[in-house]
C-alpha cells in the first residue's frame, strides 16, 4: 500500500514511512525489550540496531511501502496489552486488522492473555469490552472507507483475499500448484467435488490459519505474548499462499525483542540465520533464470520453495527451543 496521490509531494510517503521507522517504532521496541530510552547500554543498542540498520526494513520504508504504519499499530497494541491498557490495545489492534487483515490471527493469543489476567475464567466482562472496542474499531473504519469508496473497497479489502489465486512465482509453495491448476480441466463426479475443494482459494488458508491459531492458544501459557505473536506471524507467512520478501517484515520487526532472549550458541544462531538466508538465495537464483533468462525452471523453482518452507519450519523449532521467557513487567492499573 502506498500513498497515492501524495498529498504534499512525490517523496511524502517515503519520508513519512521512514520517519515512523526511525522514531516511534524503535521507542516501542525498547519498551518491549524492557530497556529505557535513551539507550545507553549494549542491549539497548542491539535492540535499536536490529531494526534501524536492517537493510530489508530500510528498503521497504524508503521505497514508499506503508508496512511501517502497520508495524506501529501492531507494536502499539502489543505494548498496550502487556501494560494492561486494554481499550488502547483493542483500538490499535482493530486499526491494524483494518489496515491489513492478517493481525486477526492474534485473536487467539489475546484471548488467552485476557484469560490469564482473569485468573483462568473464560467468560468475563474484560473480554466482552475488548471485543466491543476492537470490533467497533474495525467496523467503524471499514464503514468510513465504504462511504468514501463504496463497493470497490469491500471487494479489494475483504473478498479479494478469499478469491485470490496468484500463479506468479513467489516464495510460497502454493504458487506452482496454483499455476498448474489454471490449465487443468475440472474432474467430474465425486472426485470433481474433492478437486473443486482442493482448488478453492480458501483451501490454502486452512494450514496457516490452523497453525497460527493453535500457536496462539498454546504458547501464551509457556512463553510471553511478544514471542507468541512472533511465532504466529512467522508460521502464517511461511504457509501463506503468497509469500514475498515484504511479508518477512511482519515477523522480523519482533526480532529486536526476541533475539536478546534466545539461549542459543553463536554457532547455532549463525547456522540458523545462514540456512534461512541461503534457502532464499537458492530460490532467487532459480527465479532469476525464469524471470530474466526465460528458462522453463518451474519445477526446480517449486522445489526451492518447498525447501524454503522446510527451512522456515526448522527455524521455528530452533527458536521455540531457544527462547527464554522474559520476566513479567510491572503492570499499570488495568483499564
From TrEMBL:
Q: How does it sit in the membrane?
A: Multi-pass membrane protein
Q: Which InterPro entries match?
A: PIG-M
Gene Ontology terms describing biological process = GPI anchor biosynthetic process
Keyword set includes rRNA-binding:
no
Pfam families xref list:
Mannosyl_trans
Provide the GO MF annotations for this entry.
alpha-1,4-mannosyltransferase activity; GPI mannosyltransferase activity
| Matching PANTHER family | GPI MANNOSYLTRANSFERASE 1, PIG-M MANNOSYLTRANSFERASE
Q: Which family does it belong to?
A: Belongs to the PIGM family.
Please identify the protein, giving its name as recorded.
Answer: GPI mannosyltransferase 1
